[in-house]
Specification:
Blueprint (H helix, E strand, L loop, with lengths): L1 E3 L6 H15 L5 H9 L1 H11 L1 H13 L6 H12 L8 H6 L8 H21 L5 H13 L3 E6 L7 H22 L6 H4 E2 L2 E2 L4 E4 L13 H22 L2 E4 L7 H11 L11 E6 L5 H15 L3 E6 L4 H11 L2 E2 L5 H17 L4 E6 L3 H13 L7 E6 L4 H9 L4 E7 L6 H12 L4 H6 L4 H5 L3 E3 L18 E2 L17 H15 L4 E3 L2 E2 L2 E2 L4 E7 L2 E11 L2 H20 L2 H17 L1 H12 L3 H26 L2 E2 L5 E9 L2 E6 L6 H12 L3 E6 L4 H14 L6 E3 L4 H10 L5 E5 L2 H12 L10 E5 L4 E5 L5 H13 L9 E7 L3 H13 L19 H17 L1 E5 L12 E4 L6 H4 L6 E7 L2 H8 L4 E2 L1 E5 L3 H10 L4 E4 L16 E2 L2 E2 L13 E9 L13
Parallel strand pairs: 2-5, 2-12, 5-6, 6-7, 7-8, 8-10, 10-11, 11-12, 15-19, 22-23, 22-25, 23-24, 25-26, 27-28, 27-33, 28-31, 30-31, 33-34
Antiparallel strand pairs: 1-13, 3-4, 9-14, 16-17, 18-19, 20-21, 21-37, 26-36, 29-30, 32-35
Helix pairs in contact: 1-16, 1-17, 3-4, 3-7, 4-5, 4-18, 5-7, 9-11, 13-15, 15-16, 21-24, 22-28, 23-25, 23-27, 24-25, 25-26, 30-31
Length: 1005
């Protein structure tokens, strides 16, 4: 079905204006200027990128890497690696240039110089200057052409508080210098005044998130306070100088909080009457029309107009990918025509409300500008209240044509060093070379009717499919990957309603603190001989619950109950077992916010990470339900006259010994895998997380697991755990914990006990000493953020956490400096606080053990950072050691706390050797933009889970099955296609189906 955008009264006028503008932009250029452009390498690169999708991808990846390459040889070798890829069909000129044997050779150096210069030329097309002096020159040239400007500061991502403060200071300096320069500028009526009102000559554009390094919608209040303090300083200074300030819009996750902060701030008495401030709406967002209406209502209430800049939006690929990965609804339109139509709708909305809002229409599409002009002229919108905007280096001809027709045009001018500006450059190149780009279509001389046609919106298929994991608060629609299993969606804390729901869950859980939790044996809650208090590690004076610990005698009763229940459970059809499991997943989804709160309070895990853990537990339920149905079909190897059926049966009784660090996800994953495979299962959780295991028990019982099939048996590991491991009726032991305990279980399980008629199967995940390698081509913004998350998320208490970072010599010092600053910027505090990134460690034993390792580290290496920590809980501030030897104790032993060793190496070969130089092989990471390094790591980095150019924690079920080898563990990966096989015995059944020499033969008459 096709919906034609309503042809309004403005259409005829739009077409008339657009044709005039287009004619002005398409005037034939002279023969010499077109010949000159054909000779230029920067234009050649763009033309090739447009005609060859494979080359476009690799070329832009190469350009992204370029800032990290410091010699011509490096540039030449990366050129060959990227563009020599099999997916790339090279134009003859480029093929000839890349045909050198050695990057150090003269042809290699020439290639590096040619392409390096071309990229720099391209960058200068879109970036208005590398310093304030160059920018002033650019804006003076623009003013001669009767164009106004707004300046945006490019730079590294703000990941430290020092960088956030510097961002503010650089803007204060920029405004000061521009205003100083502007004193010598003659007044240009076309851009400096309108309707008898002066318009500020100087305007800057800023990004809200850059004013606070830990900006996060989850911590809406904290983010607002920190950002608002810096914005007030900026706005006060702008007023003193007479400069205007415009607030850009960034990624969708920040949209609601950005609008909320600005609305609140601009109603303050000090700023309420200011009209020299602006904000931005992105038309590619599905909820942008509603946002525009809300802002207009707010402006009516405010009583003084502000500028609203309307743009299409610059993060389409990023938003689409993030939503698909997170199982979240798509926030953006999937079809460019839908964005164009929405842009026109909002343009009309803004201009029809011109008494409350100054409209700034930002586009390079002649039709979009013409539409705005047609509406503005029809409504007699005063000149002050309407302007058109373009990006520097894009749509220059459109801008000139608009100026010639007497409209006010403002050019958005990014400035800054070319290297950090590459991310901006690539966004512009993507925009310029996309098939749907107006600029590209105009270059290709498409028919005028086609270029100027009203956008036709196709009804989207599948974009409105809701995710089965509803209830986490999700906006708009969804793209789901094509596979049977689709993971649960994490909570999107960017939504205010969801944050309220989370706060209510904490209130509700707090009212239940201190309750008693009894063991469950044979379907009954039983009184144990002993109780232990489970404490809140953020505040150890707070008792989460009293947990009953069973005796050895009660462990025996549980074992007998499991034996009695096994024959019936074994016969229960796999489909029925799978459906109980799916119900458990659904029940958990309904109680998601509550379960997150229990995890935060009992084991001190920060809110977002607790929520992700609930998703993982739900995923285990749904994934293993699908898996058992797949395995239950078995495999047929039939031949004429004989059937051969390969099938699986349950092993018997499984003992699950789960850890405290993933108290829900790992306990749930191991338990439900055993249960759905048809085994009767005893869950013995870690003492410090037994309340969460009791909550999991409620879910499994409510879902319908019969008595004796699942039992909750908290107890002391040294007594009850050992008894169950050694029991002759135990068939499978699934364990996650320390290497020391895992190895002991493995040894004990191997000993045949009296009366035991089978060999026990042990699945043991035993930790790691995980390393991330950062090479000289890495994106340092990305690498620093990824290392900080991997090392200090949940205070380093994940088996997948990064405890070593191996950095190549050329970037070692720069990396350590930024790593230290980024870590200093983290908030350490109670896990419950939305601002917290680093919470407590689990208990006093853990705290004391980690402190001992820190003392050992001080004897072996240099302390680059040691942060103080609160006193009232089991807190340890992050510690970073630099210049650490690969063989130091802190480089070799698992610490399980927020302690990071930074190791310096000469080259990539040494980095891999150091990474592989421990007894573990669990997770590892690589930050690199060198294809050969990525390839080599894939084959030589000895880890079960290798993560490239991302953090190394947070494996997702069915996407990154998790588990390692060497002394990191034994058994198949959790959340993967082999995992359930460990809980099953395979059997082959062969039947001769011949009778008296005859048998049915398929296909015979």
């Amino acid at each position: 079905m096709v919906l034609q955008v309503q042809t309004s009264t403005y259409e005829a006028k739009t077409q008339e204006i657009a044709k005039q503008l287009l004619a002005a932009t398409q005037e034939n250029r002279s023969f010499f200027s077109s010949l000159r452009d054909q000779m230029r390498w920067d234009d050649k690169l763009l033309a090739w990128a447009m005609s060859n999708p494979g080359l476009r991808v690799q070329l832009f990846r190469f350009i992204d890497t370029l800032p990290a390459l410091h010699s011509k040889s490096e540039i030449a070798s990366h050129l060959q690696e990227y563009l020599g890829d099999e997916s790339v069909e090279l134009p003859t000129a480029l093929k000839g240039m890349l045909n050198f044997a050695n990057p150090d050779s003269m042809p290699g150096q020439v290639a590096a110089t040619t392409v390096g210069t071309a990229v720099e030329t391209l960058a200068h097309k879109y970036i208005s200057g590398e310093n304030i002096k160059q920018v002033i020159k650019t804006v003076e040239r623009l003013r001669k052409e009767k164009m106004a400007f707004t300046i945006d500061l490019l730079g590294e991502a703000v990941i430290t508080e020092a960088e956030a403060q510097s961002y503010l200071e650089r803007y204060l300096e920029l405004m000061q210098q521009l205003v100083e320069a502007s004193k010598n500028w003659a007044v240009i009526p076309a851009i400096d005044e309108a309707d008898g009102e002066p318009i500020p000559k100087v305007q800057v554009s800023v990004k809200l998130t850059a004013f606070y390094s830990q900006f996060d919608p989850l911590d809406a209040k904290g983010s607002e306070e920190r950002v608002s303090d810096r914005i007030r300083i900026l706005l006060r200074r702008a007023k003193e100088l007479g400069a205007a300030v415009h607030f850009d819009m960034e990624q969708y996750a920040y949209k609601d909080i950005t609008l909320s902060i600005l609305k609140k701030l601009l109603l303050e008495e000090e700023f309420r009457q200011r009209t020299d401030i602006g904000m931005t709406i992105q038309a590619y967002l599905r909820d942008s029309e509603q946002d525009a209406k809300d802002v207009i209502s707010w402006l009516k209430e405010r009583g003084y107009p502000l500028t609203i800049r309307l743009v299409k939006g610059a993060y389409w690929d990023q938003e689409t990918i993030k939503a698909a990965q997170k199982h979240w609804p798509q926030p953006v339109y999937n079809d460019k025509a839908a964005t164009d139509a929405n842009f026109e709708t909002i343009t009309q909305l803004l201009l029809e409300n011109h008494q409350y809002v100054y409209s700034a229409i930002g586009s390079h599409n002649v039709r979009s500008h013409s539409r705005a002009i047609a509406i503005a002229e029809s409504l007699n919108v005063p000149r002050r209240r309407f302007e058109l905007q373009v990006l520097y280096g894009m749509g220059d001809k459109v801008a000139k044509a608009l100026v010639d027709k007497g409209y006010r045009v403002r050019v958005y001018c990014p400035y800054g060093e070319l290297l950090p500006g590459m991310a901006y450059l690539i966004r512009r190149l993507l925009e310029n070379t996309a098939n749907s780009s107006f600029l590209r279509q105009n270059l290709e001389n498409r028919p005028i009717e086609e270029l100027l046609a009203a956008p036709i919106v196709k009804e989207e298929k599948n974009s409105l499919t809701p995710n089965p994991s509803a209830g986490s608060g999700h906006r708009s629609s969804l793209l789901t990957p094509h596979s049977h299993f689709s993971g649960a969606a994490d909570t999107d804390y960017a939504e205010e309603e969801v944050r309220k729901k989370a706060a209510q869950a904490f209130q509700s859980v707090r009212q239940q603190l201190g309750k008693t939790y009894l063991p469950l044996i044979n379907g009954e809650y039983v009184n144990p001989p002993e109780f232990v208090d489970s404490l809140n590690p953020s505040k150890f004076s707070e008792v989460i619950g009293k947990v009953g610990l069973i005796s050895v005698e009660q462990a025996e009763q549980a074992m007998q109950a499991a034996k009695a229940a096994f024959p019936g459970w074994k016969k229960t059809p796999a489909k029925q077992r799978a459906d109980i499991l799916r119900k458990a997943g659904d029940l958990m989804e309904l109680r998601r916010a509550e379960f997150s709160a229990w995890i935060v309070l009992e084991v001190g895990k920060p809110v977002k990470e607790a929520d992700a853990e609930v998703s993982e537990a739900i995923d285990f339920c749904r994934y293993y339900a699908d898996e058992i149905e797949r395995l239950d079909e078995g495999v047929n190897y039939d031949i004429p006259g004989e059937t051969n059926h390969y099938i699986y049966q349950p092993r018997g009784i499984a003992v699950v010994i789960s850890p405290w660090n993933f108290p829900l996800a790992i306990a749930c994953g191991m338990t439900v895998a055993a249960l759905v495979s048809g085994n009767c299962t005893l869950l013995k959780p870690a003492e410090t997380s037994s309340v969460i295991a009791a909550k999991l028990t409620e879910i499994l019982i409510d879902a319908g697991f019969p008595k004796g099939v699942f039992q909750y048996v908290p107890g002391k590991g040294s007594q009850v755990g050992a008894y169950l491991v050694n029991h002759p009726d135990t068939h499978v032991i699934a364990f996650t914990g320390s290497q020391e305990v895992g190895c002991r279980i493995y040894a004990e399980a191997a000993t045949l006990k009296p009366g035991q008629k089978h060999m026990k199967r042990v699945i043991a995940e035993m930790g790691g000493k995980n390393a991330i390698i950062v090479d000289e081509s890495a994106d340092l913004d990305q690498a620093v953020v990824g290392v900080v998350q991997s090392a200090f998320g949940y205070s380093g208490q994940k088996c997948s956490a990064c405890s070593r970072v191996i950095v190549l010599e050329p970037i070692y010092d720069a990396f350590v400096q930024r790593l230290v600053e980024a870590t200093k910027s983290l908030n350490i505090g109670e896990a419950e606080l939305p601002s917290t990134q680093v919470g407590p460690v689990i208990d006093a034993n853990a705290r004391d053990r980690i402190r001992e390792y820190i003392e050992k580290g001080k004897a072996e290496a240099e302390v680059a950072l040691e942060l103080p920590a609160p006193e009232q809980g089991y807190f340890i501030g992050p510690v970073i050691f630099s210049e650490v030897s690969p063989n130091a104790v802190i480089s070799q032993e698992e610490i399980f706390g927020p302690v990071l060793a930074v190791i310096r190496v000469k080259d990539f070969q040494e980095a891999l050797a150091v990474a592989n130089g421990t007894n573990y092989a669990l997770t590892g990471g690589l930050y690199s933009r060198t294809p050969s390094h990525i390839q080599q790591a894939q084959t030589e980095f000895e880890v079960g889970n290798l993560y490239i150019n991302r953090n190394i924690t947070g494996a997702i079920v069915g996407r990154q099955p998790f588990g390692g080898f060497k002394l990191s563990g034994v058994g198949s990966k959790a959340g993967g296609p082999d995992y359930l096989l460990q809980f099953l015995e395979p059997r082959a059944v062969t039947e001769n189906i011949q009778r008296q020499g005859f048998a049915p033969i398929e296909g015979a008459d």
